[in-house]
Specification:
mainly beta, 7-stranded antiparallel sheet, about 575 residues, 29 strands, about 5% helix
């Protein structure tokens, strides 16, 4: 059998005229020995007639983890000290490459990223030069190991920031300013990048990493997270300059401790062409984070020197004057206020006005959240709590005292997902009758108040009718059922949410509107296996002894007070100057 392969190449051509885009140059080396004394990757001088050159591609791979931390050195136009020295992983914001798993890859769009389990680092940072460039690769330790490296550039290429098309002068130069790993003190001001008076330029990229042991344990978080970011457009601009981040995560276009202060209680990794959180871990008493932020599409321009500065946590401004967070005064109106909106017209005759919004509910769940039915009229009495468990669990089993559910992990007993003063609805521990349940949950709310499936602690049929298949038994809406075992007719638990189904005998709680969880062989007790179903968790009812007044429910987040302690810190600040 013969196979035909057709390759299509699309080539852009340019007239051979002085000043037009020139030839591409570079080097790709397989098995280059990378040693402590440094190995030459590229040594290039412009051809006669070329006005400048632009490096625009770097790629490397090699030994696991070791290649992540080699030092790439760029000597521009014969300089004795390299103006750019980076490690491939932190070049794109990952400060802890040895701690990520082997499947971890990410991209900051076309700008940089990691595309392989081992190495695979790349960047497309435009690095202009006017005469020559020397690129070395240097070992991070005393060993020499082989690597694979590609570096490319093009003569007379316009200097344009990738991803935004912002043009820079051909005389622009890219340099890298670094803060190596060091202990930093609370309220210390740390320059990420700074330029002297008389220099113009712009920030290109920031990479940032912290390692700390928070007071109260690794889940407590550190006060450093509240530190503000100030951009000084001139060398003599007064504090706070232009505030470009009202907290660590704000500068990286995230929020609430990258998710650690939200309902998920953990950092949420992300990567985009603009910014990314590459690492977030809380374990063994230590918190570690690393991130990157580009300014190619969000320019921060220096007009006469200046700096980008981050502060370790909050504190008073340098002259101890009164201030709000980050040193900015409370905004005031500087002109006439806009006209007031027209009054809301009264409802048409015969219609009742909408009821007021329900009060903020107490927290039903053991992890301090509300996971479902948080905005019903009776949310202080009934809510849903996320819960998982391994194997088969009994919905009537008592609490073990080990809190679970949501961010706390799997349950030994489903009842442990309910907070103090709350129990699984309709279970023996709740001491709740069907009438009492209907007083706090309507059939409509139960059916449509949440898109998921939440189970209660009672079968939808009474034991008296366990051997009677349809036609249905008499209406028994005021009888408290037990929790029947698997295989008995009517054993499935009462359920709320849109994933629940209406059974063949739907009259137990509400006439023709009772809903249940149903699965092959499922029962309310020993046979309820959450892994094999769509169950999101349990319905929890207030027994009248709740100690929580205000929850951290799914519609709110928390920003707790934290201790401000010394941190380990490192950063890169990539800057164009002209």
């Amino acid at each position: 059998m013969h196979h035909s392969v057709v390759l299509l190449f699309c080539v852009l051509s340019f007239p051979v005229v002085s000043g037009q885009i020139g030839a591409t140059f570079g080097n790709g080396i397989a098995g280059i020995p990378i040693c402590p004394q440094g190995s030459v990757v590229l040594n290039y001088t412009l051809t006669p007639g070329a006005t400048h050159g632009v490096l625009h591609h770097f790629w490397a791979t090699g030994a696991q983890h070791w290649i992540d931390m080699i030092h790439m050195e760029y000597y521009i136009d014969g300089e004795q000290n390299a103006s750019i020295v980076f490690q491939p992983s932190f070049m794109c914001g990952l400060a802890f490459p040895t701690l990520v798993n082997n499947t971890y890859i990410y991209q900051a769009g076309e700008l940089c990223g990691k595309n392989a389990p081992v190495g695979g680092w790349y960047n497309t940072f435009p690095i202009p030069f006017s005469k020559s460039v020397l690129v070395l690769a240097r070992s991070p330790d005393t060993k020499c190991l082989g690597g694979y490296i590609n570096v490319r550039g093009t003569e007379n290429l316009p200097v344009v920031l990738p991803g935004s098309g912002i043009p820079l002068p051909s005389t622009a130069r890219l340099s890298l300013q670094k803060n190596n790993w060091a202990v930093r003190q609370p309220q210390e001001f740390i320059p990420i990048a700074s330029l002297p008076a008389g220099t113009k330029g712009m920030m290109f990229q920031t990479t940032f990493a912290v390692e700390t042991a928070p007071v109260g344990g690794d889940q407590a978080g550190g006060g450093y997270i509240e530190g503000c970011w100030s951009f000084y457009r001139q060398h003599n601009e007064s504090y706070p300059g232009l505030v470009v981040g009202t907290g660590v995560e704000d500068y990286f276009d995230s929020a609430y401790y990258f998710g650690g202060d939200s309902m998920i209680h953990r950092g949420l990794l992300f990567s985009s062409p603009l910014s990314g959180l590459t690492y977030f871990d809380r374990s063994n008493g230590i918190e570690r984070i690393s991130a990157y932020r580009f300014h190619n599409a969000d320019p921060l321009v220096f007009t006469d020197g200046g700096s980008l500065v981050w502060r370790v946590g909050c504190g008073p401004n340098p002259d101890e004057a009164q201030e709000t967070k980050c040193g900015n005064p409370v905004p005031t109106a500087n002109g006439p206020l806009p006209p007031a909106p027209p009054p809301i017209p009264p409802p048409p005759s015969g219609n009742n006005p909408s009821p007021p919004p329900p009060p903020v509910p107490s927290s039903a769940c053991a992890d301090g959240t509300c996971d479902g039915f948080c905005k019903t009229q009776n949310s202080k009495s009934i809510q849903a709590c996320a819960a998982t468990w391994d194997g088969e669990k009994n919905l009537t089993a008592p609490k073990t005292g080990k809190k679970c559910g949501g961010s706390l992990g799997p349950c030994d007993s489903p009842a442990d997902a309910c907070g103090e003063g709350w129990e699984i609805c309709l279970s023996p521990a709740s001491k709740q009758t069907p009438d009492q349940f209907r007083n706090i949950m309507t059939a409509e709310e139960c059916a449509n108040g949440d898109p998921r499936m939440w189970v209660n602690g009672m079968s939808h049929s009474n034991p008296k009718w366990e051997h009677i298949p349809p036609p249905c038994p008499p209406n028994t809406q005021n009888v408290t059922n037990t929790c029947l075992g698997s295989g008995l007719w009517g054993c499935e638990p009462v359920c709320c949410g849109q994933e629940c189904v209406v059974p063949s005998c739907p009259d137990f709680l509400w006439t023709k509107n009772t809903r249940i969880h149903i699965a092959m062989g499922s029962g309310c007790c020993a046979e309820l296996n959450i892994v094999q179903t769509k169950i999101a968790g349990v319905m929890c009812c207030n027994t009248g002894n709740s100690v929580a007044d205000v929850p951290n429910n799914k519609e709110t987040v928390s920003e707790p007070m934290r201790s401000l302690t010394p941190i380990n810190f490192t950063s890169y600040g990539w800057v164009y100057t002209w």
